[in-house]
Predict the structure.
Amino acid sequence: MKAVARIVGKSDRLLQSVLLIGVLLLPRPAAAQVDGVHVTISPYAGWTHWDDGVNLRDKPVFGGRLGLMFGRHIGVEGNYGFVPAETINGPTMYTPKVSVGTEVGADLHHYGGDLMLNLGLSGALSPYILGGYHQVVYNSDDPLITEDNTFAGIEVAAGVIGRLSQRVGMRAEVRDVTLSFDSPAAVSDGTQNNLFVTLGLEFSLGGDVKSDDADGDGVPDSKDTCPGTPLGALVDVNGCPIDGDRDGVPDGLDRCANTPSGAKVDSYGCPLDADKDGVFDGIDQCANTPAGVARTRRPERASTRTAVRSK
């Protein structure tokens, strides 16, 4: 229980930061996801936070992941990370019981294999969890240490993927990389919980792209009561086009807003005036008005008065 409390205490703020990053990176409320068997590639960079029993300073980590997804939700993934490490006290990776020297540089290589479960059923935000086995290869710069040390353990992670497009996403993650040391010189022989906080891109190759929003209006198909909305049209919460002036051309596509009621419009929503008398077709009671006739007088009446006077 103490170990669990320690993990929660360390990762709480970091996980909140990762989730906030994921939300801020969301481009829209719905996006296409890749279905079927497909490959994922995810380069990343981040920061390490080592437990007290690990003799390393917190440093950046760089790496990549290669995954094989069996549909949207389940897959396997391999991970590699490199840390330009630096010890705090002496050349060993574990924290010694007594001070034995100064800080020493080192290269740290992290390898992992995990089972991944994507919890995102639809939309642009896909939370996920994963877990598996890992190895850390520690290569000290100390000339007296001629062999690499390898440590193994269990790793678990949680994160979010914000869909930027059909096949590209932004991935944020917090990973707990556990280590233990069996050396009697180590200050602790218990499990060390170390956090890798990373941010990167994810690219999906192969598979089938299936959209949860076929007409791209921002309303998921499951809630869209007006499918097939023209691209660019503004819609309400039900996915139905909004037409403020009721001219038959949806807002967002209508180039002439506030068209008078009853006026005929073209495909852009602009009123038609065939006789160019200033009165729109559909409202004009006297079509084909001769050029120059004032629009306040009906032309047939003007012709009648002229005929009467001539008699």
User: Anything to note?
Assistant: The chain has a mean pLDDT of 82.
